[in-house]
Structures are given as C-alpha cells and as structure tokens.
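ok here's Glucosylceramidase, seq below lol
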Amino acid sequence: MRFLVCFIFSFVIVAESKCMSKTFPGPENNSVCVCNSTYCDAIEEIEIVPHKIYVYESTLGGKRLELRKDELKFSREIINITIKFDNSKKFQKVFGFGGAFTDSVGINLLKLSKNTQKKLLYSYFNPKGGIGYTFGRVPIASTDFSTRIYSYNDIAEDFELQNFRLQVEDFKYKIPFITDANQMAGNKLKLVGSPWSAPAWMKASHNMTGIGGLIGDVKGKYYSTWATYFVKFLKEYAKAGIKFWGITIQNEPSSGLLPHYYWQTMAMDAKTQVAFVRLHLMPALNKSIYSNKLKIMAHDDNRPGLLTAALEIMNDKEGSKLIDGYAVHWYMDDYGHLSRLNETHAIDESKFILNTEACNGFRSPLRGVWLGSWARAERYAKDIIETLNNWSTGWIDWNLCLDVTGGPTWAKNNVDSPIIVIPQNDTFYKQPMFYAIGAFSRFIPPNSIRLHSWMEGTNYRDLSFTSLLTPQNVTILVLLNRGNNEIALSLDDVEKNLTKMVSLASRSITTILWNSL
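and the structure came out like this:
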C-alpha cells in the first residue's frame, strides 16, 4: 500500500504514561487499563524531530496508544502491502468525535471521588493527555439510561409551557459534568441536544414509551408547543452557561412506530420532521438567542432508512434549506448499507452526515458489558473507518461511562461502554473501545480533511484504513489490522514520489502521523 507522504516534520507529539493493566477471563487477551484518584495512563506532550513518521498502536497483546520506538521489526509471518495516497484529492471536513452525557453517566461519575471524576473526564476531553473529545450529546429529558421516566412539563394542556422546568437530573447529573468537560476541552465542546419523547399529554398514545407521535396535524398546536419545548430547553441550559452547537429533531423516530417498544420514543417521519422545522421550530429559534446559530439535524436513526428520509426532506423545497445535516446511528451497520451514506451525500452535498450514537453489547447473546473485549474495539474502529470513508463528518459514542452491569437503566437496556466505573474501589476501567476511538479522536482535530487513499496490489480483507490532513498540515493514517499476521506497510506519496516503510502489528489499531509540508 502506498501513500502520498512528505517528510518535513515539525509536529508536537506525545509519550505515554503506561497503562496499568488488569486482565479478565475471556477467549482472547481481555485486558483493561485501571485508573484511580492518583494514577491514570495519559498522553503527554513532547517535541518531535523532523524527518520521521510517528506510530501509535493499540494491540490485542495489550499495547494502548503506545508510541512505537522500533518502526521496522518484522516476524516471519508477514504480509507486504502498499498504500498510496494523494493529497491533491480531498473530501469532507471532519467535525470531531465524542460521547453522550446521559443520566446514567452522571450517576456513575458521582459514585467516584472528585479526583477520580476529574481523571475520567480528563481522559476523554483533554486534547493532550486525553483523547481529545470535541462532541457531547445531551438527551433532552429522560432516556432508557435514566432511572425514571420524566419530561420537563407534565401539566396537561399547558400549551404555553408555563410549567416547564429542568429536573434534578439536569442539575445533578448533566450540567456539572458538561461544564467540567467543556473546560477540559478548552471551551470548544460541541453539544448536540436530542429528544427521546415529548411529554405524555402531547402524544396520541398519552405515553412517553411505545408507539405513537404528537397529537394532530403538523400544522397544529401540539407541534407548535413542541417547538417551544426545544427553545425553553436551550434557554434553561444557557442560564447554566451551556450553549449548544446543534440539535437532532427526534432520536430514532422509526422506533415510535413499534407497538411494543419498551422505552421513551416518538414517531415522526421525515416529511413531518422537515415540516415541523419549517412551520414551528425555525420560527421559534429565530426569536431566541439561537437564531441562525444552531445546526439542525434530521433522521437521527439507523442507516437503512437514511436515503429515503433524505429524499422526502428534499421534496420540501423551503424546509430542506433549514436542515443542516443528517444524524445516523450504527445499530444496523453490521448489515451493510454503506452505500446509503454515499447516495445521501450525492443527492445534496450541502448537508453533512454525522454519526451520533453507537454502543456495543446491545444485541443478544452478548448483551451488556464484556470487560476487556478486543473484538468490540475492532468493531468500533472498523465502523469509524468505514463511515469516515463514506462522508461522515464525525462519530459520537453513546454513554461515556457505565457500571459493570451496563447501567443503570430503568428499561433494563444494559449495554457496554468504553469506560466502566468501579465505585467500591474508586476506580474506573478504560476498555479497548476507549483506545479504539482515541486512535481517531486524539489525532484528528476538527476541520481535518479526508484524503484519497487506496490499497495497491494485494487486497487484504483484514486491513481497513482512512487518511486525513489536519489544519496543521499533518497527515494522519489510521489502520485496523484484524488479521493474525504482521504487515510490512509501504507508504507511497504519489505527488512527491516518496516512500516510507512501516511495520503494522497483528490484531492492531494503529495511527501513523507525519508532517506534509
């Protein structure tokens, strides 16, 4: 595989504080990195010398974002691959990476000491010692990852929303930690708000869970009140010093069509979403501090229905102009449908695509937490690579942290998380998934641009990769090797006629960096 590479290097990179490893029973080397109030592995800043490339790797064998010192050391079991890349061919800008501030996240954080809380948030949001998250998704009221079902106004027929109130969960579990995370991110955190359901009295089903949408026609008072609900949420968070970058119109609206869907949801098809924005939401926002400042995302659902939703939205000529992008979830990505991303981009290149939710452990028979799973790290890395290579502008994980049961969750929807909190020891575990996301988020800052890169010769199915150029002219290549063989990687810069050799470990997630000036 050959890459377009230029070797004039003047870039700041990092040396590692080593992982304090703990291993669990499992079919492979199931290991986590243990953090507590006094120690946590971190990435520290150093100055790098010119004329080198830098390789960070995480491996099944236990390395976790380690800066490699020996670039060329091959075993006998080796595959020769050439990657080429072309800096002159550029694609979409990347907005960033992040996770969600659910009630469950705040509940778990509060079970840790203040110092350990800070270490956990630092691990995610600090751009140097941590993995540099720049996105945070914030549920608008309750979700399955709350301990109860609640809205911000349960007073029926209050169409002026005079009784709208944030709840204790906002002040205890969300706002304090969002504030801390934003400070650690240099006050550059992009927040995305997403509703799961309107209050029960506004819905045809009179229930926040299960099948049903808002009462009446999209032109009616329930939709107008729902728009006011959004604005009041934004205003109340602004009072706490928290401003939002964007909102999604409705979390997984297709689930609101399922009669026995167990937790909070609300049906709203794409045609209704865009009409709601045109008739109610945008006029309400234009009267607020968020006039023309908020990114509005439609769909916020799984990949298979994306193109159909985009086509329906395009049919509303005026409303379509008000939609900035499409939010996509990963829960059906295993079934393919990657073409939906390309096709959606092709019909309207002015709208971005952003992956807004993902988690492992949501499907039987392997539901819940699987401590130290490398396979789940590989799933994350593969999905991030594939979506970036198909026009996604970023990737937002689900819960930032959970307990060992994969909760708390009132709906018993226990899943996995990149960080697992162990309150009895005032510790937390960084799972391989954490480092899989970090291979991207730590090194790909906002406004990086995806480059054209391709494999030449051998089509090695176990190797996936993506390449980007940062605003500082640093080229980033992130690779996933799911095979059991090492790879002798030849990086060819077609434009500058330069080649560099790098070794790639078996079962590894690797980030390679070099200066492209």
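fwiw The domain at 12-16+65-92+449-515 is CATH 2.60.40.1180 (Immunoglobulin-like). kinda neat tbh
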